[in-house]
Structure formats: C-alpha cells, structure tokens
Amino acid sequence: MIPGFGSLMQDVLWCFSQVKGTIDIGVTEADIISTVEFNHTGELLATGDKGGRVVIFQREQESKNQPHRRGEYNVYSTFQSHEPEFDYLKSLEIEEKINKIRWLPQQNAAYFLLSTNDKTVKLWKVSERDKRPEGYNLKDEDGRLRDPSMITMLRVPVLRPMDLMVEATPRRVFANAHTYHINSISVNSDYETYMSADDLRINLWNFEITNQSFNIVDIKPANMEELTEVITAAEFHPHHCNTFVYSSSKGTIRLCDMRTSALCDRHAKFFEEPEDPSNRSFFSEIISSISDVKFSHSGRYIMTRDYLTVKVWDLNMENRPIETYQVHDYLRSKLCSLYENDCIFDKFECVWNGSDSVIMTGSYNNFFRMFDRNTKRDVTLEASRENSKPRAILKPRKVCVGGKRRKDEISVDSLDFSKKILHTAWHPSENIIAVAATNNLYIFQDKVN
C-alpha cells in the first residue's frame, strides 16, 4: 500500500487535484493523443498522437524554494516517430498514428522506448548532450573537411560545455512482419525480447535482430470466411518471461506458455465468463469484445476492459472473474444510438495503481472511473478545462438515469460522446495519474502529496 493513501481512501475517496493547468498538445486531428505511458520510475511520461509524434514530459526536480512543484511535468523532448506511408502492393495508406509506447528499464544515462504504428515498431534512444567536441584535425569549426596537405600540426580535441540538448535517435526499426494492424507491443521481463500483436498473429522479436521475428500465435483460418474472432490485446507476464496473455473480440482471454511448444496456438489456460441468456441481445457480442488486458504488478491477476465493464481475473480461476466493475451501466439503454454513431466500437484502456489496490479506466463526457478493490467504493471524476486550475480539487460527478435530476448530477441524455477518455496512465509508485482527453493531457495527483 502506498503510504498515506489508505486513510485518504476512507476519508475523502480519491481527492485528486490538478498538478498544473491542462497541457494542450494542439487542435487538429493529428494532435489527438493516442497513447500515454509512464516510464518505470515515473520520472518521464510519454504521449503519442495521431500525427506520429512522441512528446516526452519530465518531472520537475524538488527544490527547497518550491517543494510544491515536485509533481509538475514539463516538456522534455518532442520528435517525429512515424511518417505516413503507402503500401503500393495493396494500395493502402499506412497511418502515422502511434498505437502504443512501451518503455524499457533504464540501464544507463540514456532512455529507450518502443513506439509502433499499424505496421512498424521502432526502438528510440533518448539521450542528453551538454558538451560538444572542438579542435578536430581533419575538420574546420564548421564541420567541413580540411585539405590534409594543409595540416601542419596535431591538435587534441577538447569537450566544451554547451546548452543542454535532448536527442532522440532511432536505434532499431522492426518492419515488414505484420499483415494486419498492430494493436499491442509488450516488453518481456528478460529485456531481450518483446512481442507485437496484430488482429490474427503475435510475433516475438529480439531487440538485436530487426529483419526476423518468430511467429508465436497464428489464429488465421485457412478460409477467411470462417473467421470468427480477432486478437485485441496482448501482454507479457511481469515476472515470468515464458508466459503471456492475449484477449479476443469474443470476450475470452488465453494464457500461453512458450515452454510448451514453439507455436502457442494451444493455450495453457482459457478465461471466459459464461453469458447470461436473459441478457442476450443484438449487441452482446460487440460489447463483450475485450479492448485491453493488463497483468497486475504482482502477476497474480489479469484485468480486462470490455465496453461496459472492467473485470479482474485470478490466474488460478478460469471460469469467471473474481471482480466485476460497472463502468457506465447507464449506457445499456443507449446501445442502439451508440451503435449508429460507432461509439460502441471505442477501445477503452485500463490501468492498475502501483499496489494493485485501485484500478482506473475512462468513459464519455471526459469522465474517468476509479474503483477501490479493498473497500469496493468507486468514484467518477471529470477532466475538463473548466476545472483545470492548478491545485483545484476534483469533485466527484454523478450521472442521473431518469426521474428528477439533482443539482450536482448530469443527465445521461446530455453526455457528450465526442469527449471520451480512452487512454490513461498511473505512476508506478505514487498517486499521480495522466489522463488523455482528445488533444489535452491532464495530470492529477493525490492531495496528500
């Protein structure tokens, strides 16, 4: 348990406040944030957008003069990760949109992260430079090569101080391995390999080998007319490098063990909740599709997000989840209109807090939900520009389904479905959360800090 958080839970139930005003990334379609990820220490926060850019924010160092600024994140580096491409063989445009970012644990002064669009995964090195070499023998100060016959003396190059510069360089490009769109990447706990998953296949890569990957899951049928499900998300176990899970559009989760066979088409465990026949409807299959799957930090549990619920599964119990949380059950009566405006196909993500005691996921109207697994209490909070003043306390929001509406409630009919929070991230050890609302990034922290 994070110190001071347990008592806070019981007293005021996630009293989060704004760390600083909204970080507005931009206003165009290309500026819509498509992924958010803290690094392993929480000192850096990376966002990817539909324009193929990666923006990295760095946490302010604590100073004696301004200790309250410790939680603030400021822009550290911005770089173009992917460009739009065109597949001439299939006459298809390949979007530059960043689908996922995954950090590697820091081994030296530099940082490394993986970013992927629909087809290509790139390994980026982000490093600092505050010195530059001067006094070359074969180059002049402008970098032009000198005539060797004019060099009459040997100079020893020296390092001179310069303004701090953050450089992002692509170290590896992993391409041409996916026929379908990549939806997940996950770094293995051996830190030598990672996997990338698309709709029908999962590939295993070695960080040192870019021209070859190993196909570990292939669910493509011989006849595509017999296709009944697709892979929606995949993740490695946080501690066991041989174990991974992947979810499907049918609402099932398969746990695979790479020690069993080279091709993991046969799963070790199969997690599925039996459907209640009385709740069966035209939308049942669509809303049961799992959009995200996450191992807990302990490795004991799996969390899955479908359209209406978040479920927690125990690895030792396959027939039903041990916990089910209703995210926005009031939308059940609105499924027909949500189907017509395509919102029913939105893919919401879910995250654990550092101690696996609280889970967070997004909703519509810029609402996001938190569930305390110990007290079974939950709260709805809103990320909006109206309450984005620094240090402003977030007030819980409530949605009214029918009848009389109280002053502090919002009617389900007035929810804005164009404002949606699909991507969230939680600091690995502290109560700091990052919430992406369209093209705005909100950072909140627990008021205890």
UniProtKB/TrEMBL annotation:
One of its GO terms (cellular component) is protein phosphatase type 2A complex. It comes from the Eukaryota. InterPro entries: PP2A_PR55, PP2A_PR55_CS, WD40/YVTN_repeat-like_dom_sf, WD40_repeat_dom_sf, WD40_rpt. One of its GO terms (molecular function) is protein phosphatase regulator activity. Keywords: Repeat, WD repeat. Belongs to the phosphatase 2A regulatory subunit B family. This is Serine/threonine-protein phosphatase 2A 55 kDa regulatory subunit B.
